[in-house]
Amino acid sequence: MAAHRSGPLKQQNKAHKGGRHRGRGSAQRDGKGRLALKTLSKKVRKDLSKVDQRHRASQLRKQKKEAVLAEKRQLGSKDGPPHQILVVPLHNRISLPEVFRLLQDRDTGTVHLNEWGSTHSFMLLCPRLKHRWFFTSARPGDLHTVLDMAKVADTILFLLDPLEGWDSTGDYCLSCLFAQGLPTYTLAVQGVSGFPLKKQTDVRKKLSKAVEKRFPDDKLLLLDTQQEAGMLLRQLANQKQRHLAFRDRHAYLFAHAADFVPSEENNLVGTLKISGYVRGQALNVNSLLHIIGHGDFQMKQIDAPMDPFPLNPRVIKSPKDPGMAMEICATDAVADMEEDLKVLMKADPDRQESLQTEVIPDPMEGEHTWPTEEELSEANDLLKESSKVVKKVPKGTSSYQAEWILDEDGESGGEGEEYDDIEHEDFMEEESQDEGSEKEEEEECETVTIGESVRDDLYDEKVDEEAEGKMLEKYKQERLEEMFPDEVDTPRDVAARIRFQKYRGLKSFRTSPWDPKENLPQDYARIFQFQNFINTRRRIFKEIEEKEVEGAEVGWYVTLHVSEVPVSVVEHFKRGAPLIAFSLLPHEQKMSVLNMVVSRHPGNTEPVKAKEQLIFHCGFRRFQASPLFSQHTAADKHKFQRFLTADLALVVTVYAPITFPPASVMLFKQNSNGMHSLIATGHLLSVDPDRMVIKRVVLSGHPFKIFTKMAVVRYMFFNREDVLWFKPVELRTKWGRRGHIKEPLGTHGHMKCSFDGKLKSQDTVLMNLYKRVFPKWTYDPYVPEPVPWVKSEISSTVPEMDME
C-alpha cells in the first residue's frame, strides 16, 4: 500500500522558536524581584478604580473651590488687608469728586479720608458687609502713577463716558495696563441718568458695542445714585480675584504713612519708616526691599503697631454727636498705636541679603591678558607716527627701490594744491551766489500775503529740523535694511581683512559650532551667572509655595525701618506720588543678562534702531538700557536684527538685575517733548548670558565673465590680499547657487570662482560673515518722570487713534 503524501495545499504552521524568548518566570528570576519604572507607575494607576478616580477628582475640585472662597473671604476682612481699589477715569469729562462723593456714604460705613498732595484716597469700613475698602485714584495722564498703583491694586475700577467710553488718553492708558497685566477690574458708567429715559437704553447699547473691542464679555454698571454705588460695592466685594504672576510670589506693601529720620553723619540719607499692610507673601526682615523708582535697600527691623483702620472698632457712641464719636475713635487708635508699638523682627547681619549687584573683577584672573582700550589706542598712535612716507615714484618701482629715492623740494605738489584751492574758491563763490539768489527769492515770497501764512509759521516754529533730519535718515536705513538685509559695501580706503577682522565664515549658521565662552567682553566679568537657572528658579518658588519664609504675615499692619534711604524718597511721597515697596527674592539684586520676547506695538511706527536708549518696565522694576534685538528661534545661535521689526516677535537682550519669570515687559521711548511713547510689549524669556546673538554682514560682488561652472567676480574686494584672506569662506548667490573662491586674478580684487551650476548674468554673488555681539552696559535704574499726556500730542505719537 502506497504511503500518503501531503499535497501542495496542506497547511504549513510556523515552527516553535525555542530559546529565542523567555517566559515571565525566567525574567523574574533573572531580575531578582526588580521591576521597571514604567511597570510601577502603570500598576499604581491601575490600582485606582473608576469610583476612586471620580472621588479623587471631586476632592481636588473641592479643595480648589475652598481655596478660592478662602482668598475671597480674607481680602477686605478683619484678618486680611483692605480691599484696594484703584479708580481710573478714562475720559476727561468724568467727574472724579462726584464718584468719590457717592462712594463715601456714611450710611454704608465709616469713612476715613486721606490726602497726599494731588492723590486723594479714603478708607471705607463697612461692618454690615464685613468688608473694608481702600479707594485710591490716578489720572490716565500720569503714566508712572497709573502703572505703579496698578501693580498693587486688587481691583481697578474703570469709569467710562456714556457717549465715547474713553478718549485717546484713556485708550493709551488701557494699552499700557493690558501690556503690564490687569488684575480684577470693573466697568462703571457715569452720566447715563442725564439722558432722557427713552434714550438711556440706546446709549447703553451703543456703549456696550463700543467697549467690546477691549472688554468683550464684561458687564457695565451704572454709577449715578447712592443705590447704584451700593450695588457696585457688593460687586467689588464678591468678584473673583485675578492673579498677576510677577507679584504673587513677592511680598509687597503700599505705604499709608511714611516718616524720615536723618542719620547723624549726613542729613541727606537716613532711615525711612514705611507703614502699610503686607500683601502677597510673608515679609522677611533679612530680605532686600525694592522701592519702585528709587532702588534697592536693606531693612533694619519690622514693627507691629495697632491697625489704624479696624473693621470693628471699640467706639463709645455719643447720642448727641455720632460724628464726634468716630473722630475720638480714630484719635484713640493712633494713641494706642504709639503706646502698644512692639518690635516684630530685627535684621540678622549673618543672614541678611547683601546689596552687592556686581562682581568685582580680578584684573590678573585668566590664562592670558587682553590689551585694554588705552593700550590699543597707544599702539595705534605709535603706528601712525611710524607710518610710511608717501612718495611720488616712476611706475613699476618696487617698495624696496622707493626707499632709495630721495625726496625733492616738493615743488611738484604746489601747483596741484593751488589749483585745488582755486577750484574750491570758485565753488564757494558759486554756492554763495546761489544762496544769495535763494534768499532774494525767499524775501520776494515773504512780501506776498497769504491767508494761511501765519498758521504755517506757527507750525514751523514747533518743528525741530534737526530731529526731522535724523528721523528721515533712520527711515532710509530701515528701508534699505528691508530691501537688502545685512548687506554692506566693502570699504575702498581700508582693507577688508582689517575692517572685518572680527568676523568669521560659517559652513552652516544653524549647525556650525560656536563656543559661548569665547572672546567674552570685560563687562561679563561683572555679572552673575547661574549654573542652572531653571533649577534655581524652581527651588526658590518651591520654598515660597511651602511657606518656608518667616516674617510678617499677609494682612498685618507693619512699619518697616529701611536704612540708607535718600531724603528725596520721602519728598517724592509728600508731593503726592505713591510709595510702593516689593521684597526681593534671593539673587534678584544681582546684575546679569536678561532676554525678553517683545512684539512691536501697533500704535507706534517710528523706526527703533538697536542699541538706542529705551525705558524698560520689567515686572515691578523700571530702568533705562540700550538693548540688542535678535530673532526668536530655538537654535543655539540667534541672528542680530538692526531694527525692531513690526511683523515679528524679537528677543531683546540687556544688562539688568536678575528677575525670575514670568514677568511682563514694556518698552518705552522718550520723545523730544518729554513724553514716553509705548513701542513694544512682551514678557521675560530667561536670564542667560550664554545666549549668543550673532551679527551677519553680507559682502556682494557681481559676475564679470561667466563660463560653464566658473565665473570671474569683481567688486567684492579691491585688492589681491583680501581675496586670499577670505578664500576659505563659502560663497552663495541670490538665485541659490553655492561655490567658493579658486584664485585671485590681478591686483584689483577680481577673483575666479567655481559654483555648483551656471550663473545668470543678473545674479549677485554674496559672502556671509559673522561675529558675536554683546549689549552695552548702559543700565540706569533712575527713569525721568514723563510729561503728562496731552490729547494733541498723543495724536501725533499714536497714529491708530481716531481724533475726530
TrEMBL record:
Against InterPro entries, the record matches this protein to: AARP2CN (IPR012948), Bms1/Tsr1 (IPR039761), BMS1_TSR1_C (IPR007034), G_Bms1/Tsr1_dom (IPR030387)
Residue ranges of region Disordered?
Answer: 1-82, 427-458
Comp. bias regions, Basic residues: 13-24
Compositional bias of kind Acidic residues: 427-446
Give a GO molecular function annotation for the protein: GTPase activity
Per the record, the coiled-coil ranges are none
Instruction: Tell me any Pfam family this protein matches.
Output: AARP2CN
Domain of life the protein comes from: Eukaryota
Q: Which PROSITE patterns match?
A: G_BMS1
* Subcellular location per the Swiss-Prot or TrEMBL entry: Nucleus, Nucleolus
Record field: compositional bias (Basic and acidic residues): 46-55, 65-76
Which UniProt keywords are present, listed alphabetically?
Answer: Nucleus, Ribosome biogenesis
Q: What is this protein called?
A: Pre-rRNA-processing protein TSR1 homolog
Q: GO CC: one term?
A: preribosome, small subunit precursor
The similarity comment for this entry is: Belongs to the TRAFAC class translation factor GTPase superfamily. Bms1-like GTPase family. TSR1 subfamily.
